[in-house]
Amino acid sequence: MACFGLVVVAAVAMILMHRRHLREWRRKQSWVVSGKVGGAVRRAALVVPLPRRWVAIRSGNTSHVMGSLGRPAISVPWSEALARVGERRLFVSSPVSGWTFVVGDALPDAVQDVDRLYRFLSGTSREVGEVQFFSMDRVLGHHAWARLRDGQVQRGYAWSGAVEWNEGPLTLDERLLNLRCHDYGESPPQASWGEATNEMENAERVPLLARRWGMDLAAATEVLLHAEGVEREGGDGWA
Hints:
The chain has one domain (about 50-190, about 195-230). Helix content is about 35%, strand content about 25%. The protein is built from 7 helices and 10 strands.
């Protein structure tokens, strides 16, 4: 009985921790681009949201990362990259704690062409080692994540109304986050009216998986924009 109680307490603690991390992610999802002009802080009116699709590469060598992508990429201030993320380009971040991030509409999308995504990730991974991909759409519930090392898929999963990719064993981190992954051809259970589907919950938890695998985009963005003197919306004394 005591062991059962400990399991329940641990499960409740993990759920509360995950909810706190999700609140932090949402809080960090938009920034106001600003800069210093003549010693005064100038704030732009444009609020920049975080991309819904990104790649995290375990490398601090920006030049090597850019050369490994197999297509043209540019490195600009991260505030500019976020503002231009809808362009058909690849934008590469400065290193953050040994990780480099890639965003931009030129990133392959699992919904549109999962084979192209696989070729892009495996080719990049053969050059740089560990590559991670994340994608989420909270409106439609579409989501994807992948982790490759030395060109080999350790884990890959993508759902966009049907399973597009399911390769490699379910990881411990996916289990701990209670991510529900379907097999090819499997139909998800129907949710009751007003009830969040498993797919919607998966999409919400993508940032938590990214954090457990290495570093999530919100945390990296906060570091990068702080280094640029950019102030987050709501202001925490930046700039």
